[in-house]
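This part of the workshop introduces the protein records we will be handling. Getting from the letters to the tokens is the skill we practise here. An example says more than a description, so a record of this kind follows:
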Amino acid sequence: MTLRNVTRNLAVGIAAGIVLIATQSVRAADDRGSVQGVVNNASGQPVTGAMVKLKNADRRLTFMVVSQDQGRFEAKDLPVGQYTVQGVGGGFQSNPSAPVSVTVGQSAKADVALTNARGPMLPPAWPQRIPEAAVEKTSKEFKDLPAGDSKMLVAEKCTPCHDVQRIMVKRSDEDNWNHIVARMKTRMAAASQPLPSDAETTAIVKYLSSNFKPVQPYDPNSRLPTDLLKGKALKYRAVTYDLADRYAEPHDVASDPQGNAWVGERAGRVGRFDPRSL
């Protein structure tokens, strides 16, 4: 698998509220440390080409590096703080480690064992939507909306701005549907369209959250490569940043020649991630 393919496989794994960025090596800083260790399989044999995730929850950052010969890995230039470490390789993954303390100029130790089977690889899909391959097969006709007391209300209030397919491909919990409907009401007001009453809004959210629930719990490893990495990909390094806005829908991640990562959002925002300052 080439580095370009690895980057693509990671990029299509973006989930709501998470931005995944391929970056150049972060320049060493005086206030950083490192973590090194070994990745083994369930039999205690070293694994080359496994991804190692180092998560700093306080800074909303996760660093990913790849295990080298004899399963050894080293993640350098990490901001000081507490990290959990997890290995992901082939069809297996490890449990997250106990917190490891990274201090200035020091190298912490953390070994991981790939003892747990990974979940199934998910097909390409936008955040909180059904797989892309199924979208075009989804009906755009009102008659195909699920039956319910609020079916006509949803058609009346929602379809003037978009077709039925836009609704039927979405999969969200009640909190997200509340956010989506509130956002739509803001746009309706800007367009001087009649707004649903509070009672109608409650009914619409109840209908949508009952008929278009999340497909499955979010698995942060579900779109990582299932093959052990080889060749140039062994030098791969990635950084993920958890967005503070849980309703964000980032997509189209790209890196510029300076190593800055850029991400577009469906709602019309653009974000930039600086690999030097993180």
Observations:
- The two ends are 28 Å apart (CA to CA).
- Residues 132-211 form one domain.
- The chain is about 20% helix and 30% strand.
